[in-house]
Predict the 3D structure of the following.
Amino acid sequence: MTVRQDTLSNGFRIVTEHMPGLKSAAVGVWVTAGGRHERLDQNGIAHFLEHMAFKGTARRSALEIAEAIEDVGGYINAYTSREVTAYYARVLETDVPLALDVIADIMLNPVFDPNEIEVERGVILQEIGQAWDTPDDIIFDWLQAESYRDQPLGRTILGPSERVQAFSRKDLSGFTAEHYGPGQMILSAAGAVDHDALVRLAETYFGGMEAKPGMTPEVARFTGGETRQNKALEQAHFAFALEGPGYRDESIYTAQIYASALGGSMSSRLFQEVREHRGLCYTIFAQTGAYADTGMTTIYAGTSAEQVRELAEITIDEMKRAADDMSEAEIARARAQMKAGMLMGLESPSNRAERLARLVQIWDKVPGLDETIARIDAVTLGNVRDFAGQMAEREPAAMALYGPIETAPTLSELQERRAA
C-alpha cells in the first residue's frame, strides 16, 4: 500500500492510498471548518451548511444528488465535528470520478434555495430535539460546555434552537466564503484509486479556487465546572472529565493507553470493579479525545438513583489506585487492543481515507503505520503510572449529571475525595 500526496498551486491538498485487491474506493473532502471555527452568533452553522450541501446545486436537485451516487450502488454522506466538516462517498473503482464530481458540486455550487433552507431547518430542529431525548448523548454536550466554558470548543455542534431558527441564506453563504478556501481543504481517497488521475480531477474542480487565509481558532482553556439536570429518568447519567493532551502532544499515546486500561474494555479496571464485581451499572467506559491544542479524558456511566453516589466515588478511587498498582499486563493488553483496533479499522477504505485526511490536517504528512506502532510500543508502565498520577491530581475537573441525581455527589465532594 502506497501513500502519495500532492498540493495544488492554490494550497488544495490531495492524499491517497492504493489498496491492492479492492474493487471499491472511499473518496471525500475534509474541510478545516467545524464548530470551534464559528463565532457565537454562528453556533450551529457549520452543521447547517453540511445539511444544505445535499439540498441542491446549480447542476443537480436534491434528488439528483442522491440518485447520481445510488444509481451506481454507492453512498454519500457528510458529518460535522468541532474541528472539521467532511463530505465523502464510497463507490466502485470506475465511479470514483463521478463521486468526486458530485462532492465538488455540492461543496462549490450550492444554491441555498430558501424553501430547502426552511425544510432543513425543521430537520435540524428535530435533530436537536432528539438529542434532548437521548440522555447518554446530550450529557456529553453538557460536559463539553463545562470543560470549555464560554468558548467555541465548548459549544454544541448542532447549535441552540434559537440560532438555528434565525440562520439565513446570507449566513450560510458568508460562512462558506470565509472558511471554504482551498488551503482549508484536503481531498483524501483510499482503496481502488489512481493518485495521478485524482490530482488531475482535483485541478479541474478545485484548481480555480482563490487561495484565502485560514482562520486560527481561539486557544482552548480547560475551565472545568459542573452541570446537574434533575429529571425523572430510569437511570442517573454520570460523566466526568479532566484535561488531556492534544493530538500533537507526545503523551497522547500514553493517555490513550491509560484510558483503555482504566475503562476501555470488558477487562478494564472500571468495568471489572464497577459492573462485574459490584453490579452498579450496565455501561461504564473511559476514553481519550484530542484536539489541536487540548484534549479530554472522559469517564461515563449510567446507574440507578440509589447507586450513583457509590459509582462516582468508586470511579475516583480507581483513578487514584491506577497510579500505584497499574500492572504491566494491563498495559500490554491496552497496547494490543489499541494496535489491533487501529489495524482492523484500516481494513476499511472509508476509515483509511478519514485517517489520511486527519493526519494531513495535523502534520501535513502521513506518518507510516510502523512509526505509529513504534510510538504505541514505546509507552512504558512507568509512563502510564506517572500519567495516572497526574490525572488523579489534575485540576480543574468537569462533571455532568442527568436524571434522578438527588443523591449524587457534587463536584466539590469528588474533588475532596481525589485530594484525600
In short: Residues 114-132 form the longest helix (19 residues). The longest strand covers residues 236-244. The chain has 16 helices and eleven strands.
